[in-house]
Amino acid sequence: FKNNSPAKKIQIYIASYDPKEEKKIKGNFWKRTQINWEEQVLITLEIQPNSKEYQSFKIDLSNYKNLKPVLKQIKVVPERGVNTGSFEIDAIEIKH
User: Fold this and answer.
1) CA distance 26 to 78
2) Do the Cβ atoms of 16 and 61 come closer than 8 Å?
3) Is pLDDT of 28 > 80?
4) Residue pLDDT, tens place only, 37-89
């Protein structure tokens, strides 16, 4: 993760679902794109502002009981008040 902004913290939201539960819901899975982010897993990380190098983070997802078996979408949000800059993600590796 590379932070090209003055942010010192980011929030990472992880939306997930259980395929067994999804089969019970009518409608096309891919058309159901509305995600209530307040119900999803939220992880807050401290980051280096305006970094020139990538930072690596290891997050133990087993600590989050409301995380479902399949990850659907990830959302990265800077801390409040930061409205300039950008973020770069080089890779996301998931192990279990």
Assistant:
1) 35
2) no
3) no
4) 888 999 999 999 999 999 999 999 888 988 988 888 999 998 888 999 999 99
DSSP string, 11-79: EEEEEEE-HHHHTTS-S-GGG-----GGGSEEEEEE--TT-SS-------GGG-TT--SEEEEEEEEEP
Torsion of CA 39, 80, 78, 47, to 10 degrees: -110
In this structure, what token pair is assigned to residue 57? 């983070």
Secondary structure (3-state) at 2 = strand
Instruction: Supply the pTM of this predicted model.
Output: 0.80
Lowest-pLDDT range of 9-13, 48-52, 90-94? 90-94
